[in-house]
Amino acid sequence: ISIKSGKHVIGDIPGVEIGDKFHYRVELILIGLHHQIQSGIAYGHFGGKVLATSIVASGGYADDLHSKDSLIYTGHGGNANPKDPQDQKLERGNLALKNSVQKNPVRVIRGSELVDGSRTYFYDGLYMVEKCWQGRGAHGKLVFKFQMNRIGSIGN
Amino acid sequence: ISIKSGKHVIGDIPGVEIGDKFHYRVELILIGLHHQIQSGIAYGHFGGKVLATSIVASGGYADDLHSKDSLIYTGHGGNANPKDPQDQKLERGNLALKNSVQKNPVRVIRGSELVDGSRTYFYDGLYMVEKCWQGRGAHGKLVFKFQMNRIGSIGN
DNA sequence: TAGACGTAGA
DNA sequence: TCTACGTCTA
Fold first, then answer.
1. Is the CB of residue B38 inside 7 Å of nucleic acid strand D?
2. pLDDT tens track of chain B, all 156 residues?
3. Four-residue CA torsion sign, A11, A15, A16, A19
4. Distance, angstroms, CA A8 to C1' D6?
5. Are the beta carbons of A97 and A108 closer than 8 angstroms?
6. What helix, strand, coil percent values describe chain A, rounded to 5?
7. Under a CB-based contact definition with an 8 Å cutoff, are residues A124 and A33 in contact?
8. Side-chain half-sphere of B65: how many Cα atoms within 13 Å?
9. How far apart are CA A27 and CA A40, in angstroms?
10. B93 CB neighbours strand D below 7 A
11. Chain D positions with a protein C-beta closer than 7 Å
12. B28: three-class secondary structure by DSSP
């Protein structure tokens, strides 16, 4: 199933399969996987609702990426000035992910940094945002956390 | 005349002519005009000396770009946090440009922002750094200024 | 590791 | 206008 609103698509992208690898964020945009050049959370308007369409988890925040079929994603914001962290706000991508809780599939792209400083990304399929909550980051400021589970894995 | 040190070249780039236009900074790198993805000042080591090879003037700082054959270029640095500007330091590109004063030609790329927010760049030929001095920016902090004149224009 | 006249989307 | 899990060079 795939829902489209302008260039924003919920669900799989035709021609892109789990495990497909990429080297640059701009490739994700060109192929339609993730429509943000830097931001980790992409979203669009669907019938008056703002819903998340895809996320990139590549180590920029304190995510929990230890499991193969689930992850805990950290919301964005609050670190514009690393020396003066702020509470994250329920806006933009954070709001979109919250609206998507138990509602629509979200594409997950996992990424990592190589020894030489370059990066790689790969499409990891559709996940459901199971729940979201607020926590405290290492800096003591409020951050949003999103429990995401692979659709089709045990428990879904 | 062209002096080469590794990938750093002083002087014209074969195949690139004055007026040649570009849309993205990465094009300038690919064609060899300017070896910095974001920084406005490119430089290299030439016989133990650090010399400037090219600059991009595209509106990021308070340059004086009113003349066709000369310009006053502002050094870089001091604005990492726009809310807390700092004095510019005589290092990196600023030092390179100072070392190049009345010494070696520097490629000038002029750029501007279009109405739709995109940018264009064009190669504007070789200039000589005539002199450099320190001044105060609008924020009151020290900035470096570089008087650059087109080589071959009246006065050169 | 830090700095940089980027780049696209909201 | 501002934000953003970028990208490259030194």
1. yes
2. 689 988 899 999 999 999 999 999 999 999 999 999 999 999 999 998 999 999 999 999 999 999 999 999 999 999 877 778 899 999 999 999 999 999 999 999 999 999 888 999 999 999 999 999 999 988 899 999 999 999 987 655
3. positive
4. 21
5. no
6. 10, 40, 50
7. no
8. 15
9. 14
10. no
11. 1, 3-10
12. helix
CA distance A33 to A106: 10
| CA-based nearest residue to B41, from B23, B30, B21, B57 | B57
User: Rounded distance, CA B46 to CA B99, Å?
Assistant: 11
Tell me the CA–C1' distance in angstroms for A116 and C1. 14
- Please report residues contacting nucleic strand C, using a CB cutoff of 7 A: A 8, 29, 35-38, 42-44, 92, 117; B 24-26, 37-41, 55-61, 63, 73-74, 76-77, 79-80, 92-93, 111, 117-119
- The reported pLDDT for the residue numbered A156 is 57
What amino acid occupies position B140? G
Which residue positions in chain A have pLDDT lower than 70? Answer: 1, 154-156
Nearest nt by C1' to A6 Cα: C9
Q: Which nucleotide is nearest to A93 (CA to C1')?
A: C10
Any idea how long chain B is? 156
Nucleotides on strand C lying under 7 Å from protein C-beta: 1, 3-10
Instruction: Return the pLDDT at B156.
Output: 56
Give the CA A155 to C1' C3 distance in Å: 46
The per-residue pLDDT for B153 is 72
Amino acid at A81: N
Q: Does strand D come within 7 Å of the CB of A92?
A: yes
pTM (predicted TM-score): 0.92
